[in-house]
Design brief:
- The complex is a heterodimer of chains A (232) and B (99).
- With 232 residues, chain A is an all-alpha fold.
- Chain A has a single domain, classed as Cytochrome c oxidase, subunit III, four-helix bundle (Four Helix Bundle (Hemerythrin (Met), subunit A), Up-down Bundle).
- The N and C termini of chain A lie far apart (47 Å).
- With 99 residues, chain B is mainly α.
- Chain B folds into 2 domains: 62 residues; 37 residues.
- In chain B, α1 packs antiparallel against α2.
- Classes of the chains: A mainly alpha (232), B mainly alpha (99).
Chain lengths: 232, 99
């Protein structure tokens, strides 16, 4: 780890870099500020998703049987494949950031486009899963059919809580990806135009942080939503 | 801060680790570990998250200020969970007031 003080002084040439805004002393100091700002934003996101995870945990403890029955209706194979797809996309994103830091233009564009492709595959699989839940009337509301889950009475209502949380959590997660994909596309275009250099590629790096964060959310969603009570 | 360039070999190693842990969590869910099924799933998920944060998100190579912001976030999340859990998990002990 380098201390913050190291970042304040940079070679004279950097002070006239076109991407250095005037209120920063140097490019490294500017980048440090961006990184810290991005992390503060991501921490607010952690708290945002954290509240949902907490709600899920409490209801799961209260209504365990209904949650197990509901969870078993989720497609384990598709969930696992999507986990793998998202981890692959994190690797390609990391390689995109790496390439941009080395000033490799074509490699940057290729890795970013690969990330977009994998992100799209994830969203496609998610859409297939959502359609299945709509087809089986497992969307919370009047038409909810708990018979599908072999539940009745109170437990049928508890299953709706599971599916409400399922749609809220995976839906918010997917929303983050729907936002991320076009941003990465724009970055690929900017990289293609030669907008980034080893000295300045902060947008690629910050978007990388965002993308990896979205991956982390799924790392927790997958076991919590898909993997309860699978051993019975 | 001369930027720390992480070797692709590190990324690939982390990637293989993440994939292996994904397989491990699916496997662990299919066998009956009694009350340990959920803790095992969470331990694996936390391990994966730490790998992503340290290597893919470069926190291992970042300034202490960034590490502090990340650690602070985790601390507040745990505070949130602890506070609510302390309420919910003890309600059965004393009954719910007003009922």
């Amino acid at each position: 780890m380098s201390s913050v003080a190291d970042t304040a002084h940079a070679p004279e040439a950097d002070r006239h870099h076109p991407d250095l805004v005037h209120h920063f002393e140097s490019l490294p100091a500017q980048k440090e500020a961006a990184t810290l700002g991005m992390w503060v934003f991501l921490v607010t996101e952690v708290m945002f998703f954290g509240g949902l995870f907490l709600a899920y945990t409490m209801y799961r403890n209260l209504y365990f049987h209904a949650f197990v029955q509901s969870s078993r209706h989720l497609n384990l194979t598709l969930g696992a494949v999507n986990t793998a797809v998202l981890i692959c996309s994190s690797l390609t994103m990391a390689m995109g950031v790496h390439s941009s830091a080395l000033g490799r233009r074509r490699a940057t564009v290729a890795w970013l486009l690969l990330t977009v492709a994998l992100g799209s595959v994830f969203l496609g699989i998610k859409a297939v899963e959502y359609k299945d839940k709509f087809d089986h009337h497992l969307v919370p509301g009047e038409r909810f059919q708990a018979e599908e889950l072999h539940l009745e009475g109170d437990e049928a209502r508890q299953a709706q809580i599971f599916y409400a949380l399922y749609f809220a959590m995976t839906g918010l997660h997917a929303t983050h990806m729907v936002i991320g994909v076009p941003i990465i596309l724009i970055l690929a275009w900017m990289a293609h135009r030669g907008r980034f250099s080893p000295e300045y590629h902060t947008p690629v790096e910050m978007t990388g942080l965002y993308w990896h964060f979205v991956d982390i959310i799924w790392i927790f969603l997958f076991p919590l939503l898909y993997l309860i009570g699978r051993h019975h | 801060m001369s930027e720390h360039i992480v070797s692709p070999r590190v990324y690939v190693t982390v990637f293989v680790g993440l994939m292996a842990l994904t397989a491990a969590t699916v496997f662990a869910a299919t066998i009956d570990l009694g009350r340990w099924n959920t803790p095992v799933a969470l331990i694996i998920a936390v391990t994966k998250a730490v790998l992503v944060v340290l290597f893919f998100m470069h926190v291992k190579y970042s300034s202490r200020l960034v590490a502090l912001a990340v650690g602070g976030g985790v601390l507040w999340l745990l505070t949130l969970i602890a506070g609510v859990a302390a309420d919910y998990l003890t309600r059965g002990w004393v009954g719910t007031p007003g009922t």
